[in-house]
Design goal:
Elements: E1 2-9, E2 21-30, H1 31-52, H2 62-66, H3 78-92, E3 98-105, H4 116-136, E4 141-145, H5 150-162, E5 165-167, E6 174-176, E7 187-188, H6 195-214, H7 224-227, H8 234-242, E8 259-261
Parallel strand pairs: 1-4, 3-8, 4-7
Antiparallel strand pairs: 1-2, 2-3, 5-6
Length: 264
């Protein structure tokens, strides 16, 4: 069985929203790799503690940390925040995991209503099932996510197990293929208590930086706080660092397998 941990960047509102992009990222691993991955993360957190003074049990929330917001404000200078971010990406690539990210570009949706989280989760579940079908045959997976969105995700997961239409790559029709490998309802887990959800948050954050500068029809600017730590084009370096753990077959539209909707 596989364990799939989810987190997001941006809000899932539409047509009213505070962020133009919604990014839903997932990291998944076989149950037999969970303990080794966990032990590696604990050792990595000990390294961060020894080198930078970052507490082992403190939650790492990527955007708030890099932009020097609470609860990190004033504790780490610009250079240390940059180094810790790069260390996270370098380390994450060594874990025995796979990652899928789905991006909904809300400013390009020409519909009066659109269920952002529902569609992002649908695209993600479909990619995970495709990967498990091709690589592992009869393996199943379950979803673990931060407590705040589980109720919304539950309805979508149940629906996909009953009925699921997939657009054809060759014409404008679709075919029906229910999700077979997902078991149980999505289970809640406080992100403060899960290193894996925190790494899903990291993935969503880095993907959002990349998409803003490289996939959006019109490039989106980063904030001043972020630009004090990173320069434009370094998002590509970070994505390249993460590439060993990406499911690059999730989409053939870019080098990192990012599922971007609406398609350009």
């Amino acid at each position: 069985m596989f364990l799939a941990y989810f987190d997001e960047s941006g809000d899932d509102g539409y047509p009213n929203y505070s962020s133009e992009l919604f990014v839903l990222s997932c990291l998944y691993m076989h149950e037999t790799h969970w303990q080794d991955n966990y032990n590696s993360i604990v050792n990595f957190r000990k390294f961060l503690k020894e080198k930078y003074g970052f507490p082992i049990k403190e939650e790492f929330h990527s955007k708030q940390f890099v932009t020097d917001k609470n609860p990190y404000h004033g504790k780490y200078d610009t250079g240390i925040r940059r180094n810790i971010l790069f260390d996270h990406c370098s380390f994450m690539a060594t874990l025995n995991i796979k990652c899928v990210s789905v991006v909904i570009d809300k400013k390009n949706i020409n519909r009066p209503t659109y269920h952002v989280l529902k569609n992002a989760l649908t695209y993600s579940i479909q990619r995970i099932e495709n990967d498990l079908d091709k690589s592992f045959g009869s393996e199943r997976f379950m979803i673990i996510s931060d407590e705040g969105r589980v109720s919304k995700m539950r309805d979508t997961a149940r629906m996909l197990q009953r009925i699921n239409y997939i657009p054809s790559q060759f014409n404008y029709t679709s075919y029906r293929k229910e999700i077979k490998t997902l078991i149980e309802d999505p289970l809640p887990k406080n992100s403060k208590e899960s290193y894996f959800i925190q790494f899903a948050d990291l993935m969503a954050f880095i993907v959002s930086l990349y998409v803003k500068r490289n996939l959006c029809r019109e490039k989106l600017e980063w904030g001043k706080r972020l630009l004090s730590v990173l320069s434009y084009n370094e998002e590509i370096q970070l994505m390249d660092m993460l590439k060993p753990c990406l499911n690059t077959k999730a989409s053939n539209k870019n080098d990192y397998g990012i599922v971007y909707y609406p398609n350009q």
